[in-house]
Each structure stands twice: as C-alpha cells, then as structure tokens.
Amino acid sequence: MRTETEQTIYLKDYAVSPYRIVSADLDFKITEADTRVRAQLTIEPNPGTAAGTPLVLDGDELALGSVAIDGAPLVQSAYAADATSLTIVEPPLRRFVLETEVTIKPAGNTKLMGLYRSGGTWCTQCEAEGFRRITYYLDRPDNLAVFKVRITAPQAVAPVLLSNGNLIEQGDAGDGMHFAVWEDPFPKPSYLFALVAGDLGSITDSFTTASGRKVDLAIYCTHGKEDQCLWAMDSLKRSMAWDERRFGREYDLDIFNIVAVSDFNFGAMENKGLNIFNDKLVFAQPETATDADYDGIERVIAHEYFHNWTGNRITCRDWFQLCLKEGLTVYRDQEFTSDERSRPVKRISDVVTLRAAQFPEDGGPLAHPARPSQYDEINNFYTATVYNKGAEIVRMLATLLGEAGFRKGMDLYFERHDGEATTIEAFLAVFAEANDVDLEQFKTWYLQAGTPRLSVSDSYDAASQTYTLNLKQETQPTPGQPEKSALVLPIKFALIGPNGSEMSWTGVTGGDVRQDMIVLDAASATITFSGVPSKPVPSLLREFSAPVSMDSALSQADQLFLAQHDSDPFNRWQALQDVGMGLAVAAIDGTPWSDASVKALSQAMAETLASDTLDDAFKALALSLPAEAQISRTIGKEIDPDRVHKVRKELLKAVFAPLALEMLNAYLALSSEAPYAPDAASTGRRSLRNRLLALMVASDCAGAVGLAAQQYAGARNMTDRLAALSASTLAWTPDAAKLLGDFHANFAANDPLVLDKWLAVTASVPEDGVIERIQAVLADPGFPKTNPNRLRSLMGSFTLNNPTQFARADGAGFRFVADFVAEVDKINPQVAARVLTGFRIWPMLDQSRRDAAKVALGGLQTKGSLSRNTADILARMLA
Ligand code: 0A1
Ligand code: ZN
C-alpha cells in the first residue's frame, strides 16, 4: 500500500489560494556573513475571499525581522510565524503591500535549495519549493507575479550581479558595495526566480530572432573556463533556431543568460532569462569531456531553453502537473537531437535510457503515474517516469495525430494557454479540439502507473491467404493501484515478406489498423489481414511507438531475419537485442544455448559490422548484448546478480570471440588522426571503435588488454581515454589497477569533472574490494561531501552500475549504502534520497539478498530524524 502521512498532499485537495501576489519587489543585501531580504509584495484577495480570511505565506529557515502592511508595522498579534509559514491574521480585503524583512544564511545552506553559495558564488535554486527559503511567499506555481530585484553585494567578491529579465539600473552603493536592479516583465511563479552574485568570467554572443530582434547571449563561469563554454553557446543558438523552425516559438526577452555553478542538485534549471546549470553540463573541451558529455550539454542546453515556452510562458497549475512541462520539454529536446543528429540512433538511445531508468521504477516499489495524485515530498517526483515516460506519452500523441495534427494542437496550446498555469487536462483538450478526436481513454497514460506488457502471437492460413495477429495488453498492479485498465497503444508495424520487403494486404478485420499503425485500445484484439500471399514476419512496435514491454514470441530465425531485413532501424537493433536476451535468459534459467544459436547471433553481428549501409553509431549500439540490469528485469524475480553477470560474460565471449579478427580490423580501420570534432559522424566513429575495443577486451581476444593500454596512453581526447580505461576496469584486466591510478594522478586530480569520471569508473568495478576502495575515497578529508556531482558519481554509479557488488549476497553493499544515506541525509537530503532509490530492485532479488536489503533498510528506518525526502523514499520502499 501507498504510505499516507499527515504531510501527504493530494491532487484532489487543490484549491485556488484566497490571495494572490501580483508583484514582488525584492531587495537583497548580500554580505559574507548573511543576506538580508526585504520583500514588498503587492497582494490582492482572489474573487470570493471572505473578510477575515488569513493569508498564509510559505517560509523555511527564515529569521523574521519585521512585517508591515502599506508601510505600517504590524503589531505582534496581527501575524504569526512558525517553522513553515507566516500568517497574516486579518489582511485587508483589497489590494495592499506586505513588507517583510528576513535574514538568511546562504553559506550554511548545504541543501542547495534557496539561496546558497557554490564556490564563492551566491546562486539560487527555487524549483520546486526553494523560494520559501529566500522570503515568505505564496510559493506555489499558480501564483504568477512580476518581479523587480535589487541586489547589493560586495564589489570585490561579487562584481557580477544577475537576476531574471532586463538590467535596468546599476551603480556604486558605498562601503565597497555595489548594486544592480533587474526587472522581469513576464509574470512568473516563484520557482522560476533566480539570482546570481559572484566573481565570474563570461563569453558573449547574440542571436537574431526570426522577427529580427537581437538577443544578447552570455554564459558565465569560473574565470579561466570561458573557452570551455563554446559548445554550450553553439548548442544554445541552434536550439533557438530550431524552436522557431519546428514550433514557431521565438525567444521573448532581450537577454538570455546562463550561469555554470559547481554545486547543483540536478542538471540545470530554466529560470526565466537566467538559466543556472550544473557546470558538468556546460564545460566541454576534448581533453576533459567525452562525446557523451558533449551530447548531454547539447541536450540540456536545449531542454532548458525550450522550457521558456513549455514551462515558463505556460507553466503548471500545481506540482502534480509536473510532467506537463517536463514530459513535453523532454519530448521537444529529443526531437531537437533527432533533427540535429541521427533520428534512429537517438531513438535507440532514448529507449535504452527508458528501459534502464524508467521501467525499473514503474515495476518496483516507487512506481507512480506520470501525473501522480499524491506526494509527501515533491522533490522525489523529478523522476524518469515524469520526465521520460512523460515524453513517451507526448510522442504517442504525436504518433496518433500525425505531424500536422500534433502541430495544430501545439499551436492551439500556445495560443490558448500563454501566460497561464495549467493542467494535463487542458493540454489534452487542445489536441482533442484541434483534431476533433476523443482523448479520454488516452488520458489514462497519465494516471496509471506500470509498464504494460504486450503479448503477441500469430498464425498464417495458406489456403485462405490470411494472416492473424493476436494482441493482448496487461499491466500489473502497482502500489496504490491494484486495478488497471486498457491503454491506447499505437503499434507501428509492417509485415515483412520472405524476400525482405514489406507486404501489403487487401483487407483487415478485427482491429483499428491505420496504414502503418495498429491502435489497440482494448485488453485484446484479433486482427486478420486477408490477401497475404505468404507467411510474413511481423515487425511490431516500430520506432518503439509505445512504452510497453513486448513478448513477441518470434523464433530466433525470425528475429535474425528482422535484424537483417527490417527497414525500421529501431527494430533491426531490437531484433539483435532480443536474440541475445533470449539466449541469456534461457541459460540463467538452466537451458544452455546451443552452438548453432550462438553461431547464428555471432554471424548476424559480423554482418552488422561489415554492412556498408548502416552507420557507425548504429553499429556501435547494435554490437551489444542487453545490459545485466536489463536481463535481470526480464527474469523479474529471484534474481542472483552474480549468475546474471557470469552468464552474460560467457555469452559475450561466445558471440564475440569468434569475431576477433573482424573486430580488430574494423578497430584499426576506424582509427583517425583527425582533430576532435563533436559532430554526429565523428562521434559515431569513436563510439564504434570504442565499442569494438570493449568487446575485444571483454571477450578475451588475444592482445586486447595491450590494445586498451595502448589506446589509453595514446588517446588524444577524453572519449578515447575513458573508453580504454573502462574497458579495462570492467573486465578487471591485469592493467586495470595501474590505469586507474594513472588516470587519477594525471587527469583527475586537478579537474573535478574528470575526477567524477574516475569516481564512477572506480565504483563500477565488479570485483570484491570495491566497497573498501569507495570507503577510502569517502574517508579522505579532502573529499567534498557537500558536492552532489562527486557523491552521485561515486554512489550513483555503485548502486546503479554495479549490481554484483551493491547487491552482494552478504549484504555488505546494502549496509554500506544505507550508512552513507544516513550520513549524507544530514547534509543534502535530495542527494541522499536519490541514492537510496537504488534499492528499488530489492523485491526482485533472491531470498538471501532480499533479507539483507530489508535489514539494511530497516536499520536506516530506526536511525530517526531522517529528512522528509529520505523518509518518503524509505517508507515507499518498505511498504
Ligand atoms: N526543471 C529542471 C529540473 C530541476 C528540478 C529541481 C532542481 O533543484 C532541486 C533543479 C532542476 C529541469 O527540468 O531541467
Ligand atoms: Zn525540465
């Protein structure tokens, strides 16, 4: 059962606030010791508010100085302040100005919510509920106000003073202080407020919008890192142009600023006109950043920029609607990357991420709908379900409505809801109206948790030339949702004939079939195609058109046929994965693979590698077996991660060792002297070459260990160096320890973002001794336990990428992580809660591991005084 506590917030309880803040005049006086915040809030009663209705403002860790209304100080009895609120007992029933003065202490703010210091810089993070840690406010997304912000700070330590909107005044404030005044003309919720004060370098550029307006662009960063911001700037300009082309959306202010900071709980934040970024998603240079980093920067820069329309201009009415902005914006950033790079490669990568991050969430104790109906702690709902499944839901809408229909709906959404805080219902309504369709059943995707299982069987009748597909969908119960209903599944498909080309048919009965798509909206359907001259192989769920897990019951021969002939690249890739998965799962269940079946897969891999029509990036993805976690999830219960690891390793060897020569030749042919470039073709080339290296090392090919060491030493960019290092450490080659030491000494020691790579590699080694090594890192007095990037690289990698050591049968991994969570919870509850989510696999493990996990989680529960973030995850994990 879902846990319910006195702090549980329910969607059904949503009510408009009795008052609204229409404008906020904020005056910050920043000093080394503390920050004084004076707020003048212009407030009005909402229609229907009765006289005498108290005004309750949110607050958190604020030291209240004074309170006044319309300039007159309030007597003590006229207001009350406690740990979470300021109540004005009887506010006037007309427009008035509430003036408060509070003091906050950014330097001691290790939660990194509200105003805090990162390095020497003062910066803010307000989503979801951080603004209340800056001043008393109606800290809810449906209160839109215009902000004017005056910042006064010491000139020497904070020469740069930034906030949202436009700079309207600046000058000297005496005593070594200076000031700046910023005004944002667009009404916004408090979660989009931002302020930065620090000694920062910057790069500048400009973008001219389609309608000819010049926008000044700047990226601020630590001095000396300016030249590492160029890729981010390039990505920003391409994002701005793309949103105009693809969605007709122009930027609306004259300034767009980005600031990179080193201490940040998430990736980045879309504050109006002043995005704040985790610096790992800004800084890139070939010697320190990998292709994956370049990719992440381009994606997240685009994501935050796209929020300007989907999130800022149109925001969420309440936090239950989070996926209104997040699912839609992830969809938009995925489309951007698809248009800029390779669409099939992007689709495969996104599905790999979905399966690795969202499916386990949906199938475990933390499952929740994309639009949840209750929460204890909203920060625990910035999840793969809200983001990635949210994007899949939008993608299905686009698939069902077609490109033009989807665009019509989006246009209506922008036209109708600009300047509003709105809901999923309103979002769906514009698509229904613009396309004259009923989306009532489709809405269930937002309300129902769990990954539907789509089972397929088929038959062919040669006499009548009919082909029949039987489709069945089922979703398992999830916490709080024992009953599930049928969803609308758009299943893109084709029937492939014996010569490898797509077949047509003359008639269809029994289902909703639209050209290349079956729409299944019932629990099951039997669809018969007539006029089919020979037995086809069905290619189903092309492009992964719905986020389901599919049992297709195809034979290995049919899967390999698809791997060779399917014109949908996604399903070609999927077919190879399915063959590998089938062999691995059967072997773990006790049915070893036959020589013939492994040989057939090996052959298919060889053909993939040799193909002159497939591109390198696609080949790199195709030449792989499903990850251990993916295999475990397919098995679903009584998992023994050691056995999964062992069997996968043996299968990898059996499939790839016979290709040693082909792999080596291809590897050598892909070597390049060209200078590093982050374009799709160069990235694809490196990814295939590094994939081959990893396969050669993992399948014990002769000379591979030395080749990895050679690539490591001779690498001219971080992509190649890190790939050689992790190929060696994952297989724990005789060189691995030495290479790890070298990487630390020569690359990681002086660059925190490179150190993160070393931490992640170190924590992912699937060998005994790793826990002791991580403990030693944490025990080093120089290790910054307040920095989320460092902690996540170490502990996130351990819990998510090292199943054999995290889920050790003796429970040592679980105990270690539980102790870590208890300790870090006191410093940064968001980081602690996120690391704790790694335990979500525990119900699927075998008995002894389940018992060990329960003991560790139970021990954490008895610790007492856990943060709300961690207590919420823990309660759901154990429910
Ligand atoms: N809206 C941001 C995500 C975000 C959420 C919370 C944060 O701080 C605790 C920071 C960022 C995005 O989608 O990028
Ligand atoms: Zn977002």
UniProtKB/TrEMBL annotation:
<dbReference type="GO" id="GO:0008270">
    <property type="term" value="F:zinc ion binding"/>
</dbReference>
<dbReference type="InterPro" id="IPR024601">
    <property type="entry name" value="Peptidase_M1_pepN_C"/>
</dbReference>
<dbReference type="InterPro" id="IPR042097">
    <property type="entry name" value="Aminopeptidase_N-like_N_sf"/>
</dbReference>
<feature type="domain" description="Peptidase M1 alanyl aminopeptidase Ig-like fold">
    <location>
        <begin position="450"/>
        <end position="551"/>
    </location>
</feature>
<dbReference type="InterPro" id="IPR035414">
    <property type="entry name" value="Peptidase_M1_pepN_Ig-like"/>
</dbReference>
<dbReference type="InterPro" id="IPR038438">
    <property type="entry name" value="PepN_Ig-like_sf"/>
</dbReference>
<feature type="domain" description="Peptidase M1 membrane alanine aminopeptidase">
    <location>
        <begin position="231"/>
        <end position="445"/>
    </location>
</feature>
<dbReference type="InterPro" id="IPR014782">
    <property type="entry name" value="Peptidase_M1_dom"/>
</dbReference>
<dbReference type="Pfam" id="PF17432">
    <property type="entry name" value="DUF3458_C"/>
</dbReference>
<dbReference type="InterPro" id="IPR037144">
    <property type="entry name" value="Peptidase_M1_pepN_C_sf"/>
</dbReference>
<dbReference type="Pfam" id="PF01433">
    <property type="entry name" value="Peptidase_M1"/>
</dbReference>
<dbReference type="InterPro" id="IPR001930">
    <property type="entry name" value="Peptidase_M1"/>
</dbReference>
<keyword id="KW-0862">Zinc</keyword>
<feature type="domain" description="Aminopeptidase N-like N-terminal">
    <location>
        <begin position="25"/>
        <end position="192"/>
    </location>
</feature>
<comment type="similarity">
    <text>Belongs to the peptidase M1 family.</text>
</comment>
<keyword id="KW-0479">Metal-binding</keyword>
<dbReference type="InterPro" id="IPR045357">
    <property type="entry name" value="Aminopeptidase_N-like_N"/>
</dbReference>
<dbReference type="InterPro" id="IPR012779">
    <property type="entry name" value="Peptidase_M1_pepN"/>
</dbReference>
<dbReference type="GO" id="GO:0006508">
    <property type="term" value="P:proteolysis"/>
</dbReference>
<protein>
    <recommendedName>
        <fullName>Aminopeptidase N</fullName>
        <ecNumber>3.4.11.2</ecNumber>
    </recommendedName>
</protein>
<keyword id="KW-0031">Aminopeptidase</keyword>
<dbReference type="GO" id="GO:0016285">
    <property type="term" value="F:alanyl aminopeptidase activity"/>
</dbReference>
<dbReference type="GO" id="GO:0008237">
    <property type="term" value="F:metallopeptidase activity"/>
</dbReference>
<keyword id="KW-0482">Metalloprotease</keyword>
<keyword id="KW-0378">Hydrolase</keyword>
<dbReference type="InterPro" id="IPR027268">
    <property type="entry name" value="Peptidase_M4/M1_CTD_sf"/>
</dbReference>
<comment type="function">
    <text>Aminopeptidase N is involved in the degradation of intracellular peptides generated by protein breakdown during normal growth as well as in response to nutrient starvation.</text>
</comment>
<dbReference type="Pfam" id="PF11940">
    <property type="entry name" value="DUF3458"/>
</dbReference>
<feature type="domain" description="Peptidase M1 alanyl aminopeptidase C-terminal">
    <location>
        <begin position="557"/>
        <end position="879"/>
    </location>
</feature>
<dbReference type="Pfam" id="PF17900">
    <property type="entry name" value="Peptidase_M1_N"/>
</dbReference>
<keyword id="KW-0645">Protease</keyword>
